[in-house]
Amino acid sequence: MYLDIIYSVYLAFVQNILARLTSYFDLLNLRSSFKRKEMADIAEAPKETSNDEHVGTDIMKDGAHPAILQVKERVLEDVNKPNGWNGTFVNGKDPYALMRGCNANSRLIAQHYLWRDLLGYLIHPDIPIQIADLKIADVATGNGIWLQDVARSMLSSAEFHGFDISLDQVGPKPWLPSNIHMHTWNIFENPPEEFVGYFDIVHVRLITVVVKNNDPRPILATLTKLLKPGGYLQWDEVDTIGSSIKTVPGVSGENLDKLFNQLRGGDTWKYELTRMMSENGYTSSRLYTYEYGREVARFWNDVYVSTWKEFADNALKTPAVSNELERKAMDEVRNGAAIHVPKLVWVGRKV
Known about the structure:
The protein is of the alpha/beta class. It has helices spanning 2-30, 66-77, 102-119, 145-152, 217-226, 254-261, 273-279, 297-316, 319-336; strands at 42-43, 53-54, 58-59, 82-83, 88-89, 135-139, 159-164, 180-184, 199-205, 227-238, 244-247, 282-290, 337-340, 343-350. The strands form four sheets. A seven-stranded mixed β-sheet has the order 8-7-6-9-10-14-12, sandwiched between helices. Strands 2-11-13 form a three-stranded antiparallel β-sheet. It has a two-stranded antiparallel ribbon with strand order 1-3. It is globular, with a radius of gyration of 20 Å.
């Protein structure tokens, strides 16, 4: 059933993009040209690869593309405080590295159902949910789809809160279930006093871009403040260091790898997070790793290419170069290549 939903969302997503391509590229051509920066290639540490995959070796400065580093600095050092339901910002600035429009929202929807299909759950089975007056927080909630999906399977007495620096992708407040509440909040500030020690479960997914200096502990400390003693943290991420390009025999994935390499980073903290959780107030901390099969690899691939397109438009700002790279990469995809990225889920209980 999940694959049917994924396929329907995926088709709608692709049709939406195709319908807008002509006008989209016309608009790109009207943009001011930007001088292309030459980037030095730094060899990635050797990896074992199978005969049918091609792994990139263009790791950029500090293990990440310079534009990713710039986005992290912008998010962490020049974040303006949001105010209001619609995620308005002081001085009108939004530090998010990607987009918040309808195509971006379609990507989030497809991504959510792919995650759910792969994991087989929304809340990890290690986490008890048969609790009276259960309270759940979803940090970096995006469009709130994870929170709404969880709420459907819970008792009406449960309480759900979504937090993000912008709520532009969330539906109108009157349309949300009465037990779902949304809040604008900067994760680098202390939580609102009323939510300190408030939640039984805190969930967070895909916030790598805001982890500074390869150290997630400041964010971990903030998330911990939201939990009751004995509450559970579930943190979901992707393993870009362990990513690869899968191909059918005889097909190149060189350009696809070059494209995705602009999203890769040197986020080695993910290999240490279990230990960090155990050293910072958690017990029974465990990491679970998941890999999807090649029958759904194209679905995942197109989500990642869509993510890259948002990043290229919002951060790289080299439309001519990016469009040509995308064209070559998608030719490889149609011939039988796909981005493959393992998924990581940490679960820990607050002492």
